[in-house]
Amino acid sequence: MRFCRFSYGGKTTWGILEDEKVQPLAGPPYYGIVKEGEPLLLADVKLVAPVEPSKIICLGLNYADHAKEMGVALPEEPVLFMKPPSSIIGPGEAIVMPDVSRRVDYEAELAVVMGKKAYKVSREKALEFVFGYTCANDVTARDLQQKDGQWTRSKSFDTFCPLGPWLETELDPSSLNIELKQNGVIKQKSNTENLIFKVPEIISFISSVMTLFPGDVILTGTPAGVGPVEPGDVLEVIIEGIGTLENRVKL
């Protein structure tokens, strides 16, 4: 099933997407699906970011080709960092380049959205705690990342975590084509089968460190081909079985 969050009539709510229509829901579907009101045409609503997490946990260097292009060794265990919820934007919203950065990069990623509270879960049971998947762009101020020697500032600016366009629940994350287009030109192209640490292992590892709550987001890493953006660029993250997340860049 496909779930979304949308704005209509001055109100933002959850919905189920089916046949170009949106069935409004009374609340987040993690806790049960309660329909509310009549279906609306998808064309009549505005999709917003499909999740409101308590935290966003990200993996760095989780594709071998990306680690190579960054000039670093392959990690022995998942490399974690975080982005704040305030960095989230939805489909169609603008990525704003900060004044303090001279180079901002795109990074296409598969995002995992948790559906159950998870703490110290095994790899074998990890996928049972997942609600769904969506597209993500881990936007990064690359010059600040290199300058600071750690990643918090470079990853955390408002608008630096586009998510969407919706959540897909019926998906096997082990082999999904993923690509990024910049102004219609393919810049990144890979498959999640090339992840160094697979989704179940990622969830198990993170949950051994911190409790994951329903709605929390995990960004699983980006493949090779990351590059700079310019004002006016249109970025599309396209993931097989999910769809396309499109955002424009502005100053």
Topology diagram in text:
Elements: E1 2-8, E2 11-18, E3 21-24, E4 40-41, E5 46-48, E6 56-60, H1 64-69, E7 79-83, E8 88-89, E9 94-96, E10 104-106, E11 108-114, E12 130-137, E13 140-141, H2 142-148, H3 152-155, E14 161-168, E15 177-182, E16 185-191, H4 199-207, E17 217-219, E18 227-228, E19 234-239, E20 243-250
Parallel strand pairs: 6-17, 8-14, 9-20
Antiparallel strand pairs: 1-2, 1-5, 1-14, 2-3, 3-4, 6-7, 10-13, 10-18, 11-12, 11-17, 12-14, 15-16, 15-19, 19-20
GO biological process, one term: carboxylic acid metabolic process
Protein name: Ureidoglycolate lyase
Pfam families: FAA_hydrolase, Rv2993c-like_N
Give a nutshell description of this structure.
This protein is 10% helix and 39% strand.
